[in-house]
Amino acid sequence: MSPTRRQFLAGSSAFMGAAALGLSPAALAQALREQGHPPTLVTIYLRGGADPLNAICPAGDPDYYKVRPTIAIPAKSDDANNPAVIPMTNLFGMHPAMKPLHKLYQDNRMAAIMNTGSTHPTRSHFDAQDFMERAAPGIKSVTEGWLNRYLTATQSNADRTLRAISLQPTLPRSLRGQYPVLAVPTGGADAAMNAFERMYSCDSNAEANQKNGLTMKEDSKPSDGDVPRVSGGAAVAPVERPEDDLNEYIAEKGEESIEKLRHLKGIVRGQGGGKYPNSRLARQLSDIAKVIKAGEGLEIAAIDYGGWDHHAYQGGNVGTMANMLTTLSEAIRAFHDDLGNHMDKTLVLVMSEFGRTVYENGNNGTDHGRGGFMMAVGGMVKGGNVYGKWTGLDKKNLVAGRDLPVHVDFRVVFAEALFSLFGFHADKEDFFPKYKSEDRPVGYLTPIANA
Amino acid sequence: MPNPTRKFYACLTLVLAMMVLSSAATAQATRPPDRGSGDGYDEGPELTIRERATHALNRMAFGARPGQVERVMEMGIENWMRQQLDPESIDDVYVDEYLAEKTPTLSMTNGELYREFRPPYTPYKNNPPTKAEREKRREEQQKRNRMEAQVEKQLRDSVLHRAVYSQRQFQEVIVAFWREHFSIDQQKGEVGLLANNWEEEVIRKYAFGKFEHLLMSSARHPAMLVYLDNIVSQKPLTESEQRMVDRFEDRENVPRSVRALRRQRGLNENYARELMELHTLGVDREYRQRDVTELSRVFTGWTARWTGNGQRQQGDYTFYFNENVHDTRNKLVLGSQLRGGGEDQGITVIRALAKHKYTADFIARKLCAYLLRDTPSEKLVKEIAGVFRKTKGDLPKVYEAIVFSDEFFYRQNHRVKFKTPFEYVVSALRATGAEVESYDRVDRALELMGQPTYRCPDPTGWYDQKEAWLDPGVLVYRWTFALDLAGNRISGVRVPDALLANLPVKELKEKMQKTVLPAGLNDRTSRIIDEELGRRPNAEQMLATMLGSPDFQQQ
Known about the structure:
The structure holds 2 protein chains of 2 kinds. By secondary structure, chain A is of the alpha/beta class. Chain A is built from 13 helices and 12 strands. Helices cover 55% and strands 4% of the residues of chain B. The longest helix of chain B has 35 residues, at 131-165. The interface between A and B is large, with 84 and 94 residues.
């Protein structure tokens, strides 16, 4: 047991209880939830189809250098300006730009999963993202995100205001759905919230309607004699009108916005964040860390990192993709270090809609492919490992002679995350539509109850 | 109502209980006992003339401009509606001038756009290219990106400008509908360059024509061919061809015919699927995966190329039927045997889809939801689908049937739609009579609100139902926009001084309400305005409050 884990257990009575009483994963999650410190799943979605082979590079496979004559990352190098992969296994090494994550890999807190993806063969971004974020490949009638479905399936009256957040203008599709999740606007919101707080207060609305309703019963004059009712000149009797229902509903949503956003701002405004690099992703993760540390019951956070559609000028050990991998790795590392013990029950899951062509194209880039990769960082990760079934780069083992095959259904990875963190049985709950998994779990996580 | 929170139910139940208590006696006496769904009955009270005019302007326009409700009442609501149904009859000089001056790319052909905004790269002389060559290529690429961004911006500016200022408001409302129905995304590949011509030559050209023509032109425009990948869809290899490719896999000398086979990329089902799911029949109506695959074989070879020897110096970039990649084997689509192949096969299928009864249902329902309320009455949908079929998809007749239906002015359709961000922003600019010099910040606001124009990542287009937009957090952007607009803090946008003139509080409230919310204020909104602003009359604050109120989110 690592020192950090021991410290964490010492600091958490529920965790102690779990260990001593053999609490089920679900019971543990519930106990932690009640304390405001539930496990947290943070997904980072690399939009555009991130290239697996130049992130977790099969540098031990000679074919790798055949299929990528210009953009492959060298297996070995003595030249600091031409950095080589950082070894992970006999076969794989991580891109040198991912150096910040290597320490976590060595400490068994980071793992990669190769040949992940969808059972649906689409190579279209929007279909692939939709199918993945709704965890329903090929089923367009499913419109709610998988994370939102999880929140709905496990909701209770005790749910905290910030049970789930997405720190960007609109919700990623994985968080869209009936469960109310806050998409946070950037800056300047205080004045707006102050200005409209009363207008969007449901209590005062109900009160007002009640007042009007009762008045109407007695006589049909407006209740407030000295306040003129302005209704465009025509007196409309305030009886039941469909437009009033919508008006109420909007007011309710507005009230909810203010409540959640104020709460969030109160937390993230404070000092006490760790050291983060200067990037949007890092700022988002820094805010998420603050919410976790504040014990506000955060269970799900989803953020997007776009721009991975590298059809041209992808670059090799330096260049466009290398820079983005640096941004990604530095932000995750800073988040990990900032969270300290909290990282024992926080999982960062990095994913993308599909992989890219095994062969580089004529523009030093790669095109849309099939099999991709995922990365997991957290205390419950059985790290220091590259999971998934690797079937090589031989053309006959590729889909259509060009793409990595999908050996790990992303739903298997998702299901394991929900079980490990929350004790949630995705299979039992019929959580993934029209899906009965025959696949064994990847085994990349230890249920935190067993930690 | 789709999945409101429990808390909301609790809140609503209380309110409803109070309302039922108060109005049960009078209401039930005047209503038919079986109203339930509201089909065929006005749930009343009947709209006032002023409410009717406002409703017409909320449905057949992006809201009223200052004084417009009065003008419509004066000319007669029906007369105004009839005029709007015939956009050609309305003079639109101001918009025409703007387009000619500010957005000339809208009237260019694809060929012209490519020539002017996508100059060819300087070819590499060395292999591999030298560092200097790569650097130059990078600069050229950046320059291209900047130029293309200009083209994209012009399209978005034109969309906003027309929506705010066009006299042909109903045309803009309808064009906005088809723009989403046949959604394309500027961010996907070359769509950014092709979308300008698409807007003019597909959406605008046929929005007041026959549905079949609209569908056909959408299927053949390079923007759609690129957006839904049909341009790269090619007949799949036969088994013997595949064997041939495999046989030469590790050989040094590969015959040209085999190399050609290798390059073949195979079927892409993207367009065939969306054609049925999103453009015509509706999701999972009649067709199955097998039909999708078979139909995508029908459309192999529907691609685009340069006319005139493929030279970019002249000619246009338009539809081209490429026989070489077309699948000529028999197909079975929706139960019909299609023998052999050819371009006509696709044309026949599109015509059949355009007049399919499910298409009539699908389009009728979608239009009624757009023009009346999110869940229109089954009776009306049926009626309108009938008009669609009878007129063979004559769209103006369909629109006319909807807006002159008995139900159009029913109380249950009045202010029951939640404005999309686009509708919110446009209606706010119209209501205030704002003058817009630059749409950059407006465009940015739409992006923040989650509805950037012509950049919907899904082929579904932006939804117009409330469940797509009424997320917690969304309203905060609208309030910010309301405050900034009223305070003249949106650069490039100016609210006229006359609207911001301070008056005694009663007059100020009445004037502002008549301008911004001409159908009147919700009782609670009115009360809160009195409480908040009753003592210190402040025009800017009054305007911002009304623009940010729940009432102004409704239409």
